Amino acid sequence: MAFAAALGAFVAAIPAAASSHLSPAIAAARNGDLDALRAAIKKGADVNAVDSETGRTALMYAAAKGHVRLVEALVAAGADVNLEDSFGETALLDAAREGRADVVKVLVAAKARVDARNHDGDTALVLAVSTGCAAAVGILASAGANVNAIDRRGWRPLMYAASRGHAEAVAALLAAGADARATSSDGDTTALSLAVLRRHKNVAVLLKKAMDARK
Is the Cβ–Cβ distance between 45 and 80 less than 8 Å? Predict the structure, then answer.
């Protein structure tokens, strides 16, 4: 996630005005300009064009910034929801990282791959959990995201939510079938142990109740 965070900072630092190299669709998406996007689409702009400096598409920019109407317009115009940039990021990963649940909903409905991973190994579910966006967690889980998957760090989504004290995300994961008793890949860590370690008492209570219910 550190690599992806650096990417986000890099993208955010690019001045919106420095867009002479951008396709009309990308320029409109970066500026959040729905009218300009619609005009570009009407003129036949390539909605899957790639920003030569960042490797990102109009849909990725719109998703990350939470411009749900632009996302809807791009999807309707045929934008590929599963394209990846040079870091393995997709529009869905961007939306999940920024806690854009309304955008996540649109992209999932458009058949975005819910378990796609970026080059850090993060899924949309892990990113939504880490952000604490319970609504996005619920949408992804309902769409088939694996709530008990182990990532390359050996952790599960519930562990990230617990370690950060995101009680609503923990509750959403538990409701979707996350196993409160599951351990990390080394067998030494549980979501409860992380919650206790980080002193997230309300999260620890939720997890203890879930574990007791399965006895």
Answer: no
Q: Where in the chain is CATH 1.25.40.20?
A: 1-121, 147-215
Summarised one tens digit per residue, pLDDT across range 69-109 is: 999 999 999 999 999 999 999 999 999 999 999 999 999 99
Per the CB < 8 A criterion, the answer to whether 210 and 190 are in contact is no
Q: How many residues does this entry show for the chain?
A: 215
CATH architecture of 147-215: Alpha Horseshoe (1.25)
Is residue 112 a contact partner of residue 153, using CB atoms and an 8 Å limit?
Answer: no
With beta carbons less than 8 A apart as the criterion, state whether 4 and 118 touch. yes
Is the separation of the CB atoms in 170 and 162 below 8 Å? Answer: yes
Six token digits for residue 169: 């995300």
| pTM: predicted TM-score of the whole model, two decimal places | 0.87
**Architecture of the structural domain at 1-121:** Alpha Horseshoe (1.25)
Question: Letter for the amino acid at 193?
Answer: S
Q: What is the SS3 assignment for 84?
A: coil
Q: Mean pLDDT, to the nearest integer, of 178-190? A: 95
Q: What b/e string do you get for 114-141 counting C-beta neighbours within 10 Å, with b at 16 or more?
A: bebbbebebbbbbbbbbbbbbbbbbbbb
Confidence of residue 213 (pLDDT cuts 50, 70, 90): confident
Residue type, 24: P
